[in-house]
Amino acid sequence: MLLLPLKHSISQTQFNSTHHLLKSTSSRSAARFHHQRRLTHRHQVSLPLSPGSDYTLSFNLGSHPPQPITLYMDTGSDLVWFPCAPFECILCEGKPNPSLSIKPPNISRSAVVSCKSPACSAAHTSVSSSDLCAMARCPLESIETSDCSSFSCPPFYYAYADGSLIARLYRDTLSVSPSSTSPLLRNFTFGCAHTTLGEPTGVAGFGRGLLSLPAQLATFSPQLGNQFSYCLVSHSFDKERVRRPSPLIIGRYDEKQKINGGEAAAEFVYTSMLENPKHPYFYCVGMTAVSVGKKTIPAPAMLRRVDSRGNGGVVVDSGTTFTMLPARFYESIVEEFEGRVGRIHERASEVEDKTGLGPCYYLQEGKVDVEVPSVTLHFVGNNSNVVLPRKNYFYEFLDGADKRRVGCLMLMNGGDEAESSEGPGATLGNYQQQGFEVVYDLENQRVGFARRQCASLWDTLNSNSN
């Protein structure tokens, strides 16, 4: 087992107000989700989503001397890439960049990956080796004799929701933990970008692909590559609370080590991974319903399965903040929520406009406990129900100069179902995953959820590993 700390980027980012923070976060969630749909119209198979902008982890690259890098942890893409010296980021002003204090690493030209490598073909999706050799300006006689091993992999292009980059593939030694006992991954393959558009920070792709971090760990040790989990410390956009690390656990660990408030931890609730032929790197699951209080609202059929064209299902994504749902389904949830909360509290329409969230309500002064209905997510499988903690779907904060208390529903409208009929139907964001250990069991092809005291889990596992 490897235990790594995840850090939340808001602890290193300056925002003018809570409104600014929420608006920025909701806009990124929407852009990332809508980009999932646009991918279905591309010829490339493995374009990633816009990089996650919430949780980061750090590595050391090379050994003479080791060079530190900080990357976003992202289950929605399947490549590890980062800026390399010299580096220029165009139109990156105002974007969160947790690696500002770290100089981009220098990469040796001798570490370039050959265009005959399967890794190069994977980076270029389905491009054949001969085509790659031609792109690398390999002479015709070498292509005809399949002798292109001495030619480097040509640059590949990644387009995001709000940016893009061109990178080359390199290999070097990667240390995944600062510990002296941490394994060194030799010949680790990564993308090196010297120029990007709107993307100042690199990404550690944890998706289901040949070049993802779990896949490359599996070549070093199958036990490390067949499972990973993370447990996100609940932060509610409070900088002080995110100073505690969120554990990222690579590989399996002893069940007896799971301690939650001094008692045995809750069991996992599992749901099967769904294969996505169009986007094989996604972790897709099926959702059957959402309950608001005692009212169960059935999910549209498109969220229960993925069809032969890769459409439908729910993507479990560490790189999207808020859960995005199809419009009619979302509106049914809001209608039920409004019937419970809106009859008591005044609607805060101005706050909704400022934050991009809704519905929002002005909460009654002096009343500490606001009555809010419970929310339960129902996934495909027997008893695969996940009861969300209240803070995972209803956020309270002080608004304006008069500091009026406001509460907002933290789910988002993903757009018309007809528009979302192409690509994933919904995304389960990391805000709704807070306070759960979320396990990606690649060996058994399932995703699991279990309530945890994540800070305590970090302390327990960290003390056991020392």
UniProtKB/TrEMBL annotation:
GO biological process: proteolysis
SUPFAM superfamilies (UniProt xref): Acid proteases
Domain Peptidase A1: 55-450
InterPro entries: Aspartic_peptidase_AS, Pepsin-like_plant, PEPTIDASE_A1, Peptidase_aspartic_dom_sf, Plant_Aspart_Prot_A1, TAXi_C, TAXi_N
GO molecular function: aspartic-type endopeptidase activity
GO cellular component: extracellular region
Protein keywords: Aspartyl protease, Glycoprotein, Hydrolase, Protease
Matches recorded under Pfam families: TAXi_C (PF14541), TAXi_N (PF14543)
Record-stated family: Belongs to the peptidase A1 family.
Protein name: Putative aspartyl protease
Organism name: Senna tora
